[in-house]
Write a structure and sequence with these properties.
Elements lengths: L1 H8 L1 H26 L1 H7 L6 H27 L13 H24 L1 H12 L6 H24 L2 H5 L15 H37 L9 H6 L3
Helix pairs in contact: 1-2, 1-5, 4-5, 5-9, 7-9
Amino acid sequence: MATLLLFSLAYWWLDNLAHEIFGTVLFSLIGWHIARNRNGLKALFRFPCDLSGAITLALHLFMIVAVVALLLTSLLISKSVFSIFALQESFYLRDIHWFVGYWVVILVGVHVGVHWTRVMAMVGLVLKVPYQSMIRTMGLRIAAVLMAEYGVWSFSVLGAWTKLTFNYSLDFWDFTVAVISFFAHWVAVLCLAAIIAHYVMVVARLVARRPALTSKATFPVRNGSPLDRQTHQL
């Protein structure tokens, strides 16, 4: 799904029909993803009990709004696959479509970062790499630092901030000069969002765990009964 999303960004390289085909397949896979993970999604909407749960809930709410907005604008400005639903030419809807699309890239990156533990467990299972391997851990940390640096640079190269703040820019990517670097930069931006989200969740889980650890701490009590020791628990 992330690959289809990134290919959809290359509108001026692939043209409109390819863009809409990629988008159609993408939304089909999103529907399949939601159906397959419906029980987990329902569980997310229970009242979050800690900071990490609240962050995860907020992320999914933003993603739902963004994906629905992307789907609706896709139908309303379609020129090929769903032209029957399209309205008259609307530059405003087209701008909203692009604006939301860029934000979906960031949210997908954040989504990957929030579920990074599950992603790494799947990758380790496929590649048969031990989950607690020190080599794996150090390799991933070095790769994360390098990718984050490249992502910050790519964010600037692509003018991503201008796109994410709904501002106009005449700076379009020249696909006649370079194609692969376009996708490399967007992959780096997505990875940057994932890395930031992952470490935000690490901090959030530590903050949530601290009260639990504090409540288990006890003061030493000399010559006290079990009841006395319980009263001295934090």
